[in-house]
Structures are given as C-alpha cells and as structure tokens.
C-alpha cells in the first residue's frame, strides 16, 4: 500500500472497531494525523521510526524478559509506534469517571473484606472465593490502613467492542507497571515528532507524577513535613527495573532493595553511609509473598524481616497494601459491578466484559462446549501467561485445557473471544492494523482518585494477535487525550 | 547513600578512567611503530604488557600480532581489562543505580556502550585507528564533562571522583613501570617511548611549557610523579583523592573512624610525594619509588572497600 489514503486496499475488517477509520472515512479527531502521515514519504516514515527506536535504545528504555541466561539477549526495547492513539475529550470524561468509580469501589471492597465482611454476609460474593483465595492475607484482618487506602496505584485495562464502547478487561491492583512507558512515549513524541504533537491540544501528563508523589505522601503515618518515601525494588534483574529507577528518579524517592533496609524497634530504616534513615512510606514493587520472610515466605531475600510488624505498629505505610491481590483476582473481577452498586449506590459507568465462572456448573458446561470461541484465563496469573485463546488454539491444546478446568474449576474463568479495537501502526513505513488496549492509571490516597490523562496504549505487534502484554512482545503508542 | 550505591559509584569512576587511559595509551603506542624500531613483535608485546594480562594473551595466541593484540585490548568482551569490558562494567554499575545520577549521564554512557559494542575490528584497522581512539576519548570525555557540568556535588559525586583519581594514580604508576622495564642497554633508544608516555597522558605540551628541556625517562618520570599542577600526575591524583575523601566527612558518621584512618593513609601517600626531591627520582631509584607507590595505591583501594562496601549484615526484627 503506497499511500496511506489507499484505505480500501487494506481497510480493516469491519468485525473490529477501528480507532482511525470509520469504514473508508477518517474519524474527525484523527484527520490531522492522517494528513501529516500522508504527506510524508515512505522513506520519511521509516527514518522517523528508526530515529525513535534509536532513542529508546540509547535511553535504555527496556523490558527484561524473564528466563534465559544470556544477559544481552534478555534486554529488549519495547516496540514503539509513531502513530499516536487519540481520545476525544468527551470519551475521556467517561473513562475518567468510570475509572475513579471503580477504584473507589475496589478500595471499599478491600476495606470491607478485611474488616466487617458485610458483602460476604449479605451473600453477594461467595465466601469461599475470597477466603480461599491465594492472595487473601489473614495478616491484614482488622488492621487499620492509613487513609483507608489499600490500592494506591492501580492500572485498569480497557478494551473497546465492535461498536466502540469501552469495557474493563481486568484490574491490576498489586503492582501495576507501565507508568514509565507512558512518560517516555510522550517524551519521544515531543522530541521526535513535535510538528504533530504540538498541532493537537493534548492534555499534559507531567502533573501526574506530582499527583503520584502527593498520594504517597498523604499516606504517611507521621505528620512530618517531608516524609521519607522509598521504592522497594527486587533489584536490577527484574523485568520492570527501568520503571523503578525512572519513578524513583522522577519523584525523588529513595530506590532501595531489601538488603538496604533494616528493622529496629518495629521501625524500618534505610542503611546509609551517614547512618540510619527512617522510612515513612514504602511504595513496593515486589509481591506480598516476598515482603517479609518472618510473615510470608521464609526463603525470600527480597524483602526485609520485620516489615509486617512495623506495619502493624503503624510505623510505616505500605503502598499498595498487602492483600490487595484478592480484589484483582480474575474471578472476583466478575463481581466488581455488584460492588459499585453495593458500596457506592451508583450505576457502573464502565462495564465488565461478560465473564463465565468455571466454578458454576452450568456456566462451565456452556463454555466447555464452545472452547474454540472462548478465551480461558487462569484466575491468579497475570502478564498474559497461562491463557488459552480459543480461536487460535489447536484441538490438543483445547483438550488439555478442558481437563485442567474440570480438575480445578475454581482456578479458571472464560470470556467470549473479546473484540479488541484495532489501530493503524507504522510497519516499515506502511500502514498495518493491529489490536490494542488501554491501561488507565489511577492514583488514590483516601481523599482523591487522580486518573492519569491517557495512559498506556498497548499494541499486539503480531498480526491478528490479541495478546498485548509487554512480556509477550507487545508494543506501545503514545496516548493523547484532547482537552477540547 | 547506600553501601551498594557507594560501591557502584566508585567503580563507575574507576572504569571510565581506566577506559580513557587505555584508549590514550593505545592511540599513542599504535602510531609509535611508524618510528620504526624494527621489531613489531616486541612493540605489540610492550603494548599488551602495559595494559593487559600477558599470560592470558599467550594462552590464546601464539604470537604478538597487531590484529590480535588490538582486539584483545580494545574489543574482546572476554578480557576483563579490554576497553569494551571497562565500558560495559561502568555501564552495568550505572544501570544498577540509574536514579542516583542525572539521566543525561546514563544516556551518554549507554549510547557510547552500544556504539562500541557494534564496532568491528576490521572497521578500526581499515579506516583509521586514530579516528577510533579519538572517538573513544571523546565519548568518555563527554561523560566526564557532563558529570562535571550537572552532577549534584553530594556524597555520590565524591565517591565517583575518588574512584576516578585512585584509578588514575594507579594507571600512571603502571605506565611508568612498563617503560622502566626496557632493558638498560636499550635505554638510549627508549626516547620514542618516553615521548609516547608523555603524549599518551596529554602531557607533552605541559612538559614543554615548564621548560623541562631534556626528554629523558628520568625527567618524564619526575614530571608524572611530582608535578602537582598537571592533572595526570600521581601527586595531583592522590591529592584529589584525599580531597574527595575529606569532603565525605560531613556525610558519613557511621564510618567515622574508619574514614579518618583512610584520609590519614591518603594524606600520608600524598605528603610523602610532597617531600620527594627531584633528585630522589633517578634511573636507579625509580623502580623502588614506583613499587612503593603501587603498594600505597593497593592499600588505599582495600581501605575504601573495607570502609564503604562491606558493612556488617544484621537482622533485627
């Protein structure tokens, strides 16, 4: 396809909503992008892309893949696409309101589960599903948490169906990653494609880092003017280490590993050359299991012994709180619209994707009869691992999965194969269409919920693929929210 | 500042300095051959001796040839002291502590590393080795210059710089030793080498400006050991190393007494140089002086490690 205008040749199949084209028409808010790209020659588009890829590499904006033993082969830059994703102001309004509502409900749910458990007593959510959940932490029962906030940073994944309506695909409430890619994508667009960026009234995102820091600060248990905030990372071999350093650097937090911390008198200190420095807020990017060898996994070297005691004594805030995983479990997800009605007495603004629980016999049989049309997910795995994508699976894979489901129905949910919207990407200077989703980031501190304008648009780089996760080779686009 | 961060900073300083010294030396030595001492084997051998591990080299190759030596010293990732390895080590250390230093520095060093990793030896020898070494020096100078220009002058800066100066003083000692090893009967013919040493540290013009007439190994050694106004002299390096340690006093209570001991050690090494007279450095005493300096450097390196990097582990919960 030589010119970008030649839509008819590879006009996207109408089964999916296309972000840029409405049939053969360009959607109004993409008009200018379309013009600019059409005016560029193929070589221009290729060289512009190359320039951006070079910057990604130089700045070391990488994602380290787990597994393998070659230090060099592991570090990959995230594929970045130069065609931005644009969200009109009114559309964003809905997303923002819906995200805010959802985060408030999820926080209310966690506070309820770890205190009164009204929602279980009222029979809205099966008790077994919560209490038997691998992410449920008895240590958190009846523990007052600062600001009543369990989930400080969350990433809500949205998709669009064939009509263009937004649905929530999943909630990431433990340690969602992707913040740094949002900011880096924006910086690449402003530096390497300024003529396009500045021709749109795009909402800035710089403030969100400030909001993030403020949210963490407001959770400090002390009334000290400048509480010490530290980011706890598993270390430089972690896949998201780039993100950890980025956030620490941009927000002026201490970046620490477990071995840098020590617990004394139920307070947590950073061991510095100049002596000990007490930590007030710990923004942690390691899983519950590894936080404290005395409370959780005794073989963990990543956390700090005594952290949970310090937490229980109210000497430190942990964000996100331990035990939030119970709310982002893929089976609990089905109940979020209920939670919104139950706790907030509001109508859900953003809907769930229809989801079948394998633990309900009739739903299970319904799904097992149609595995080739379904996407089956393990409830407790994230990052695109442990999935069966029905339409793309083989007979043998489906049989294996069916056996797994019958063996452990509680561990699986199924959804009709979702219709992710597609967006044009620049592939070697030509336009191709790929599936995308949107991870919206929200920051809560008990008083407010800040929603980062835009978020992370993830692209499934393989043709026809529905898996957008970075761990599976997904790419990203800059996401622009228009302010008018 | 955390112990592991201090350690990484110290090594970033050391490795960037080492890479620069190696690049300078190779550049000069490489072009020295054209002055025709007529024994290419010996030339390459001396270059390898000056900055590499000869035993390792001889295990791998059966003779000292240009291509092999050049690869071994610049681009061989399996040789710990090659320029590529030094840059990679500096980058790895910086990667671990990215948030401690301005991101401009990371972008520079990472970009530089990626470029160097992609260089093929054929390109170097076919085009112009001088151009290649020039680029090496410029890349490292850009890193150093940017650091000087924008890095916060807190404890992390002093850690970085103390690594740099300790490395520098050690490199100069080794450089002088490698020239001093030329057999006495060849001393007369070692003029070219002496000149090369001076040029490799960028000190030739400075040497001239100080009206030092005679370019002899004795004079050049005196200059590189004692000349406190020249930034690549041992005296200058040790004095700066001591200054940076002193600057850390305010930041470091925990290692107070250990730090004071270190400052005294560094002060002692520096003042001993200060008391040295020109005439104390002669052809006969040079070796002993250098040996002593090497010992002092090693002692300081160990002391830094003891003071900053290996605190006692404790678990109190």
TrEMBL record, chain A:
Q: Which InterPro entries match?
A: ATP-dep_Glu-Cys_Ligase-2 (IPR051680), CP_ATPgrasp_2 (IPR025841), UCP005522 (IPR016450)
Residue intervals of the Circularly permuted ATP-grasp type domain: 84-460
Q: One Pfam family of this protein, by short name? A: CP_ATPgrasp_2
Report the superkingdom from the record: Bacteria
Q: Which Gene3D superfamilies match?
A: 3.30.1490.270, 3.40.50.11290
SUPFAM superfamilies attached to this UniProt entry: Glutathione synthetase ATP-binding domain-like
Q: What is the protein name stated in its UniProt record? A: Circularly permuted type 2 ATP-grasp protein
UniProtKB/TrEMBL annotation, chain B:
Q: By its UniProt entry, which Pfam families does this protein fall under? A: Alpha-E
Name the InterPro entries on file. ATP-dep_Glu-Cys_Ligase-2 (IPR051680), DUF403 (IPR007296)
List each copy of the DUF403 domain by range.
Answer: 1-309
Q: Which domain of life is it from?
A: Bacteria
The record's PANTHER family line, in alphabetical order, gives: BLR5612 PROTEIN, SLL1039 PROTEIN
Q: Per its record, how is this protein called by name?
A: Alpha-E domain-containing protein
Q: Which organism is it from?
A: Cohnella herbarum
């Amino acid at each position: 396809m030589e010119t970008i205008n030649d839509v008819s040749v590879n006009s996207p199949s109408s089964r999916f909503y296309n972000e840029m084209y409405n049939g053969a028409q360009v959607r109004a808010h993409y008009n200018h992008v379309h013009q600019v790209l059409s005016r560029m020659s193929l070589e221009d588009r290729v060289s512009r892309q190359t320039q951006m890829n070079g910057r990604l590499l130089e700045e070391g904006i990488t994602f380290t893949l787990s597994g393998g033993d070659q230090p060099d082969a592991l570090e990959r830059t995230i594929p970045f696409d130069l065609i931005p994703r644009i969200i009109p102001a009114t559309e964003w309004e809905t997303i923002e309101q819906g995200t805010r509502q959802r985060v408030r409900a999820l926080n209310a749910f966690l506070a309820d589960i770890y205190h009164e458990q009204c929602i279980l007593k009222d029979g809205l959510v099966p008790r077994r599903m919560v209490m038997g959940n691998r992410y449920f932490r008895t240590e958190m029962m009846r523990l007052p948490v600062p600001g009543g906030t369990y989930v400080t940073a969350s990433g809500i994944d949205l998709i669009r169906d064939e009509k263009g309506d937004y649905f929530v695909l999943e909630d990431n409430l433990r340690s969602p990653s992707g913040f740094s890619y949002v900011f880096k994508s924006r910086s690449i667009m402003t530096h390497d494609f300024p003529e396009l960026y500045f021709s749109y009234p795009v909402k800035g995102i710089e403030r969100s880092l400030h909001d993030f820091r403020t949210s963490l600060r407001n959770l400090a248990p002390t009334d000290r003017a400048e509480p010490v905030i530290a980011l706890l990372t598993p270390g430089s071999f972690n896949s998201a280490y780039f993100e950890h350093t980025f956030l620490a650097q941009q927000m002026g937090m201490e970046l620490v590993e477990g071995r840098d911390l020590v617990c004394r008198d139920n307070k947590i200190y950073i061991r510095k050359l100049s002596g000990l420095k007490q930590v007030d807020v710990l923004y942690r990017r390691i899983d519950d299991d590894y936080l404290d060898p005395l409370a959780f996994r005794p073989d963990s070297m990543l956390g700090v012994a005594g952290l949970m005691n310090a937490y229980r004594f109210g000497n430190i805030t942990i964000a996100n709180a331990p035990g939030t995983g119970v709310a982002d479990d893929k089976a609990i997800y089905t109940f979020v619209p209920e939670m919104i009605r139950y706790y907030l007495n509001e109508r859900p603004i953003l809907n769930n994707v229809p989801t079948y629980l394998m633990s309900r016999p009739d739903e299970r049989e319904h799904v097992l009869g149609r595995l080739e049309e379904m996407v089956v997910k393990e409830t407790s795995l994230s990052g695109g691992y442990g999935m069966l994508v029905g339409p793309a699976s083989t007979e043998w894979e489906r049989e294996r999965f069916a056996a797994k489901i019958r063996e452990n129905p509680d561990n699986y949910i199924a959804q009709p194969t979702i219709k992710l919207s597609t967006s044009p990407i620049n592939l070697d200077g030509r336009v191709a269409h790929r599936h995308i989703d949107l991870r919206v980031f929200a920051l809560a501190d008990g008083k407010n919920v800040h929603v980062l304008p835009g978020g992370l648009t993830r692209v499934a780089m393989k043709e026809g693929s529905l898996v957008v996760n970075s761990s599976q080779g997904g790419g990203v686009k800059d996401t622009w929210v228009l302010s008018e | 500042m955390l112990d592991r961060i201090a350690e990484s900073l110290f090594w970033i300083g050391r490795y960037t300095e080492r890479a620069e010294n190696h690049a300078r030396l190779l550049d000069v030595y490489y072009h020295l051959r054209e002055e025709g001492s007529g024994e290419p084997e010996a030339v390459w051998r001396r270059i390898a001796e000056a900055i590499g591990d000869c035993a390792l080299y001889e295990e791998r190759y059966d003779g000292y040839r240009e291509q092999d030596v050049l690869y071994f010293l610049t681009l061989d990732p399996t040789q710990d002291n090659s320029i590529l390895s030094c840059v990679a080590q500096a980058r790895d250390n910086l990667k671990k502590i990215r948030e401690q230093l301005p991101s401009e520095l990371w972008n520079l060093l990472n970009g530089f590393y990626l470029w160097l990793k992609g260089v093929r030896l054929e390109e170097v020898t076919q085009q112009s080795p001088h151009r290649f070494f020039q680029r090496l020096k410029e890349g490292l100078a850009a890193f150093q210059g940017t650091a000087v220009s924008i890095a916060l002058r807190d404890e992390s800066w002093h850690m970085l710089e103390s690594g740099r100066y300790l490395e520098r003083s050690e490199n100069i000692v080794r450089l002088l030793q490698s020239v001093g090893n030329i057999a006495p009967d060849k001393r007369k013919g070692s003029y070219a080498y002496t000149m090369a040493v001076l040029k490799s540290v960028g000190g030739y013009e400075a040497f001239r400006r100080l009206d030092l007439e005679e370019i002899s190994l004795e004079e050049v050694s005196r200059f590189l050991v004692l000349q406190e106004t020249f930034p690549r002299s041992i005296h200058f390096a040790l004095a700066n190393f001591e200054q940076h340690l002193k600057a850390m006093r305010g930041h470091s209570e925990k290692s107070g007494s250990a730090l004071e001991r270190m400052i005294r050690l560094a002060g002692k090494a520096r003042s001993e140089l200060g008391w040295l007279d020109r005439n104390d450095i002669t052809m006969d005493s040079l070796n002993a002086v250098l040996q002593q300096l090497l010992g002092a450097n090693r002692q300081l390196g160990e002391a830094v490690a003891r003071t900053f990097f290996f605190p006692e582990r404790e678990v109190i919960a």
